[in-house]
Specification:
The structure holds two protein chains of two kinds. Chain A is mostly helical. In chain A, 66% of the residues lie in helices and 5% in strands. In chain A, helix 1 packs antiparallel against helix 2, helix 3 runs antiparallel to helix 4 and helix 4 runs antiparallel to helix 5. Chain B has a two-stranded antiparallel ribbon. Classes of the chains: A mainly alpha, B mainly alpha. Chains A and B meet through helix 1, strand 3, helix 2, helix 3 and helix 4 of A and helix 8, helix 9, helix 18, helix 19 and helix 20 of B. Chain A: This is Tripartite tricarboxylate transporter TctB family protein.
Chain lengths: 149, 499
């Protein structure tokens, strides 16, 4: 943990909120707003977005103004491995089937830590894949192909 | 007498064979995730939601509820034996529970914790049964105006009483509300914020959001911390507490149950606040406070009773008013909606078998927990030997399959991936994601009631303060928010919620 001249946590949260609010306002610009007695579909999104904008500006301001402990640096390995694991599952599940997608997802997720041993990971991935097919497809009847079509 | 009849009806539902089986499945899974640190009840319930589709509503709710209170039991087992709180609610149990284990009294501590939990669970079941009827009668008088105010109260109170900065949590609630607005507007049929994606027109599913933010985001953050090595060395000699232990623990159990029951009903209460408050109370009441932290049995009995009572009574606002007290209850509401049941005050009269069945099942489930926890304690502890490096890939895989399973849509898997990233970002910048889930689930109801109220009042905002019940509710909201501005209360809140 390093000391930082600005409160990075507040600043990032504030900027995030401002971005979300701005995106909402742009995305809903064509919706009818209406008035309180007869609200159009754009009324609530706009009200919420404006409130979020307010919070965002407040946190951004506070973040710039006060000193706090900085954020621990991001470790890319776990972040990327887990995201890649989910992504690979989404890409392969319907095309290559649950059995292969499961093995790929588990293997990729295991890269998140340095502790894993390859043999153990492969064995475990095969085991989990089998368990997943048995539990979700055979037992719970999830309509997903098991093997490539 | 009506209460008695209701409970009997509930018991007959809860004792149906398939419901007994689902109750057992629920409490076993609950205990397991309670024992394992790093997996909380929120992702677990989110994970199992898709598979409750095929069940009857009562079976689904009974199983999901079992996971929640089962986790409270499991959490205390590891707290006592290994000094690792399986859940936040059992952090306090570590203090004196583990100390007792070090002195060779692990068995006593475990037994007292289980008995206190069972005692609290029994009393809390009765409290739910007694309170539910009058509350739901009152709630039936509510119109859209009162309901809107009540939803606001629920959201605000959940924010004020939960962990974390109030301002940040409010912003998160708004963010959740915004996400809840995505999809086709019910009254005009216009698509909002769908960005032309067909999968978004029915709105965002909360399961991928909950799993991404709570399940996966948490895993990524956990992996950043260096791995802990845990040693389980305590042997359990005798599980039967001595009479003196029991005499010392009993008053603490009663006090813990009372405190937990009251705090659990409050929005935001849930399972985290009661044990801390109970521990503080026991320490204050003790003749010799210095014993605490050195294996005082009251320090185990009180908080354990409080957390179980609180976990159960947090179902009261859900079952009677349709308002979730915490993020987990928000998931329960989602489960009801997936079953086609609109949560709200009418649920008690329309679905009496469901409501009373769930209430009665809690008592049945507590009895099961007592049986599966004490004799099988060795089995649960051995689960701790499963290394995290094997555990987390399995959770990731099950999250993927579960998310896919809600609507057989790969879009949800991508959505979960995005939410995992955002969830990790929130953890990094120190923002609690729980309020977002509340906002997301309550958002559509909030908008609908607001629009209906405005339509009735012809756009006159004063309707919220001119109707007495609504005015009182909003008054409470104002007091809560003003109280947060007082530095003294902010300090006490910080101390009360500090871990």
């Amino acid at each position: 943990m390093t000391r930082s001249r600005i409160d990075l946590q507040d600043l990032l949260f504030g900027l995030f909120l401002v971005a979300v609010a701005a995106a909402t306002l742009v995305a809903t610009r064509n919706l009818t707003v209406g008035h309180a007695a007869d609200m159009g579909p754009g009324y609530m999104p706009r009200v919420v977005a404006l409130a979020l904008m307010g919070f965002g500006i407040f946190f951004t301001g506070r973040g710039l103004w006060r000193m706090r402990v900085g954020i621990a640096p991001v470790q890319w390995r776990p972040l990327l491995a887990i995201l890649a694991s989910v992504g690979v599952f989404a890409l392969t599940a319907e095309r290559l089937g649950l059995a292969i997608a499961s093995v790929a997802a588990v293997m990729l997720a295991s890269f998140a830590t340095r502790e894993g041993r390859l043999v153990e990971t492969v064995a475990f991935a095969l085991l989990l894949s089998g368990a997943a097919v048995l539990l979700f497809v055979k037992l719970l009847g999830l309509p997903i192909p098991i093997w490539p079509r | 007498m009506e209460l008695f009849n209701n409970l009997l009806m509930g018991l007959s539902t809860a004792l149906e064979l398939n419901n007994l089986v689902f109750c057992l499945i629920g409490v076993v899974i609950g205990t397991a995730i309670g024992v394992l640190p790093g997996i909380g009840p929120i992702p677990t319930v989110a994970l199992l939601l898709p598979f409750t589709f095929g069940l009857s509503p009562a079976s689904a709710m009974i199983m999901l509820a079992g996971i929640f209170y089962g986790a409270q039991y499991g959490g205390s087992t590891t707290a006592i034996l290994v000094n690792v709180p399986g859940e936040t609610s059992s952090v306090v149990t570590c203090i004196d529970g583990h100390e007792m284990a070090k002195q060779g009294r692990a068995g006593t501590a475990l037994a007292i914790a289980a008995i206190a939990s069972f005692f609290a669970g029994t009393i809390a079941t009765i409290v739910i049964a007694v309170l539910s009827v009058p509350l739901s009668v009152l709630a039936l008088k509510f119109t859209a105006v009162e309901y809107f105010s009540l939803l606001v109260l629920g959201l605000i109170a959940a924010v004020v009483l939960a962990h974390g900065s109030v301002a940040k949590s409010l912003a998160m609630v708004l963010l959740g509300l915004l996400l809840g607005l995505v999809g086709i507007d019910v009254s005009s049929g216009v698509a909002r914020m769908t960005f032309g994606i067909a999968a978004l027109s029915d709105g965002l599913d909360f399961v991928p959001i909950a799993m991404g933010m709570f399940g996966l985001g948490e895993i990524i953050a956990n992996l950043e911390r260096p791995a802990e090595r845990r040693v389980v060395s305590q042997s359990i000699r005798s599980l039967i507490p001595r009479r003196a232990d029991f005499r010392a623990a009993f008053p603490a159990m009663v006090r813990g149950t009372t405190l937990g029951s009251v705090l659990g009903v409050l929005p935001g209460g849930g399972a985290a606040l009661p044990p801390f408050s109970s521990y503080a109370l026991e320490k204050k009441l003790a003749r010799d406070p210095s014993r605490f932290g050195k294996g005082a049995i009251e320090g185990v009995a009180g908080p354990e009773a409080a957390n179980n009572a609180g976990a159960q009574t947090s179902f009261i606002p859900l079952l009677t008013l349709g308002i979730p007290a915490n993020a987990l209850m928000a998931l329960m509401i989602g489960a009801l909606m997936m079953q086609g049941i609109q949560p709200g005050p009418q649920i008690m009269t329309e679905q009496p078998k469901l409501v009373w069945g769930v209430i009665a099942s809690m008592w049945v489930g507590n009895l099961m927990l007592l049986v599966i926890n004490l004799p099988l304690v060795g089995l649960w502890v051995s689960m701790l030997k499963i290394p995290y490096r094997l555990l987390f890939p399995a959770i990731v895989l099950f999250c993927c399959i579960g998310t896919y399973g809600i609507a057989n849509s790969l879009f949800n898997v991508w959505l979960m991936m995005g939410c995992a990233m955002i969830g990790y970002f929130f953890i990094k910048i120190g923002v609690e994601p729980a309020p977002l889930l509340l906002g997301l689930v309550l958002g559509p109801q909030l908008e609908e009631n607001f629009r209906r109220a405005m339509l009735l009042a012809d756009g006159d905002f004063t309707v919220f303060v001119s109707r007495p019940i609504s005015a009182v509710i909003l008054g409470v909201v104002a007091v809560l928010l003003l109280a947060m501005l007082s530095p003294e209360i902010v300090r006490t809140r910080k101390e009360a919620l500090a871990e």
